[in-house]
Design goal:
Layout lengths: L1 H29 L4 H22 L13 H38 L10 H25 L1 H11 L14 H17 L4 H19 L16 H7 L4 H4 L9 H6 L25 H6 L13
The chain binds zinc ion (2 copies).
Length: 298
């Protein structure tokens, strides 16, 4: 029985946690909280819950111990993912939103296909936002002058829930512009875009966690934890894959998809000969200094 539960639990985690996060967010909104506040509160609870669960049901027992970077990871989360992404999002909404309004006023109609069913509009956001992230992410691995801002995210020797938001301020500032610039420019309603941002954010937390979460055949649609672990592999034959955010579609189309089934898992994650400093300020300054890490994709 215990063995059965251990085998079944990883498959239950994905539907339970995703529906729990999404459900809680909409429940708080139904109580009158703003979408941003509801989503923010649930995200903090989601990270805390996964942080506890990954100690209990780890994907890899050698990733349970501390790497001494937890405070830096939280710092990059607050500074990069919090301030950086929020400012990037505000800038895109302001600039591209103004262009969308101007275009709609001059044409007499908006460019976004608002006549489509809500679900189809959400699908369109998934396709466009994921394409934007795929292009940004692939370029960041391809060119050294961009890689230096992405290296911080890969400079890890274990996966864990706090690694999700360990990203450089500059990367996180430009990420919403790449992902949502075109969508806002076309005039997509905020409530449609929210259906991408919120569930995809919970998915990102699971993707970086050391929680044993398995998505089974959904791995041909969703960029899940096992797929993203391969992207973090120190072996670049595995690491130059799975660049998408929520979906594996663009990886499948552009030939960079690597399926982890049945048991393909990286020997080690991180960067070979990693030269990332260990201090928070030094990590932020690293991309601007003369000494740079090598580009991941030669
Ligand atoms: Zn990457
Ligand atoms: Zn990652």
């Amino acid at each position: 029985m215990a063995l059965f539960a251990r085998k079944l639990l990883p498959y239950l985690m994905f539907p339970l946690l995703m529906s729990g996060g999404i459900g809680m967010t909409f429940w708080l909104m139904s109580l009158g909280q703003s979408p941003l506040k509801a989503f923010g509160l649930v995200s903090i609870g989601f990270v805390a819950l996964v942080f506890m669960l990954e100690k209990w049901l780890p994907a890899r027992s050698d990733w349970v111990a501390s790497d001494g970077q937890e405070l830096n990871d939280i710092g990059h989360g607050l500074f990069g993912t919090g301030l950086g992404a929020v400012s990037g999002e505000a800038l895109s909404s302001w600039v591209f939103g103004a262009i969308a309004l101007w275009t709609a006023a001059h044409l007499g109609y908006g460019l976004w296909p608002s006549q489509l069913a809500f679900g189809l509009q959400v699908v369109l956001v998934y396709l466009l936002a994921d394409l934007g992230r795929y292009i940004q992410h692939r370029l960041m691995h391809r060119y050294e002058f961009l890689w230096r801002y992405h290296a911080l995210h890969h400079s890890v020797n274990k996966m864990g829930v706090l690694k999700n938001s360990r990203s450089h301020f500059v990367e996180r500032f430009f990420q919403p512009i790449c992902m949502f610039g075109l969508i806002i420019l076309l005039g997509a309603p905020a409530e449609v875009v929210f259906w991408y941002i919120m569930p995809n954010s919970f998915l990102g937390i699971l993707d970086h966690s050391n929680l044993d979460v398995r998505i089974g055949p959904l791995s041909y649609l969703v960029n899940g934890p096992a797929e993203h672990r391969l992207h973090h592999s120190r072996d670049l034959k595995e690491g130059n894959s799975n660049f998408g955010s929520a979906l594996v579609l663009w990886d499948l189309i552009f030939g960079t998809y690597l399926n982890p089934r049945p048991h393909l898992t990286p020997q080690a994650v991180g960067i070979e000969n990693d030269s990332m400093p260990t201090g928070f300020a030094a990590q932020l300054a690293e991309p601007f200094l003369a000494h740079k890490p090598e580009a991941a994709e030669a």
